[in-house]
Amino acid sequence: MSATSPLRVLAVANQKGGVGKTTTTINLGTALAAIGEKVLILDIDPQGNASTGVGVAENQRHVTSYDILCGRATIAQAGAKTVVPNLSVVPANAELVGLETEMMAEASRPFRLRDAITALLADQRANPAALPYTYLLIDCPPSLNLLTLNALVAAQAVLVPVQCEFFALEGISQLKATIDQIRGTLNPGLEIQGVVLTMHDARTQLSKEVAAEVRNFFGAKVYETMIPRNVRIAEAPSHGKPIMLYDYDSPGSQAYIKLAHEIIERERRLRAA
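Request: output the structure for the sequence above.
Response:
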């Protein structure tokens, strides 16, 4: 996937659970769709939380990311509309759990998702009348497994959410080493698009210290916007809505809108370069 591709592919990844990957994917997708981008969320987490969070119930997941990775369906066939205009999702379910074992002997296993995205680009070129996707956001599982490897091989850049808590920095250097290794072998164009600090509590010294350490480690890659610890963010997925639709005026919603503007501005600079 070249930097000049009409489709921008971002993986949202961190092998630590509970850091805000899915929430960031959903709300960034919503914000991009709101400014006129056509966005596809690709859910490759067997828990399927991104699918639930945009209103696609488990009994509505007829074609999933498992079907795509097994070669049974294309991304173009699998994209399902969500409650947000211009935002679609390829849903996930527990079938993904056994995928690693099923593909163990196959040399092509790290490239399945990249090949599916290449086929999507071919589909889009063959159907110029259809509005093409301009952003594909991959919601990764909380581990550095075959699914995450597929996402990092297929993506142009990685968005890393980091929780402002004591164990946040554990594994960050491992993730960076993994990204560097993949860049050196399977995906030379891979870069870190940015790092977002989540669950920030401005009242605690710990949050301030973690934020300072992450900024020291990643430098200018860290976004200025920090996502606060906010109960409305936690409630929104159970209603099948992004925070911006559930409670637009909440601090969490406003923070994600600011973050989206920052990411969009960074993306514009990259495309102009």
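The domain at 8-272 is CATH 3.40.50.300 (Rossmann fold).
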